Amino acid sequence: MVDSHAHLGLCEPDDAELVAAAGEAGVRRILTVGIDEESSRDAIDATGAHEGVFACAGRHPNGTMTFNAEAAATIETLCRRPEVVAVGETGLDYYRDNAPGEAQAAAFAAHVEIARSVELPLVIHMRDSAQDSFELLEERAAGVEVILHCFSEGLPWAERAAANGWYVSFAGNLTYPKAEEIREAAAFVPSDRVLVETDSPFLAPQVVRGKPNQPANVVSTAERLAELRGVAYEELERAVEENAARVFGW
Predict the structure, then answer these.
(1) Domains and CATH numbers, the chain
(2) What is the mean pLDDT of residues 91-99?
């Protein structure tokens, strides 16, 4: 199994402990994701310190109040590092009022162009913003591989994502009792476009809910996902590993 989205630098245990625990659980690769330039550099450093760790560099939409051309240039430079296999996370977050929608959209569009320039996939944060996020991607991201991280929408949006050929990644909230819409979407996503993640240290799966999440817990979410899809865990494992290898090039 792989964890297609984690934030090692935001977790309380040190990276070595997290990576070791993930390995013991059968997690072979971890994508650690930056939320700004500093954390993106830290993600790059983590790849050199730990086998099986890869980096994603970008500016989270909640931090886009200060995003400008200089920030975009820095992120593009970081994304040209060989350790970086994806751009982001970027997108739109209408749940938190940390940055105006216009600033988020401008940064989002800039990240799309960075991904196109460096020929890397784009990792999308989408919270209470599906309509605007899909429209921006459909208008601007033709030819760019898209990963909808922590997918939390229902079946109609999963169908639209599939029509666009985007990857859809599911996190621990898939396992929450009230997440029926997410589970319906998870059962639908084509097998060649499904991914699993932890979003550590957030969104721990139900069996450890209330505790800080970590990459090892991706196995619990994947077990539930396999059950929803009516396949053996090993079959889902193969599909997820193949999908991650294809989109991230690792």
Answers:
(1) 2-248 (3.20.20.140)
(2) 93
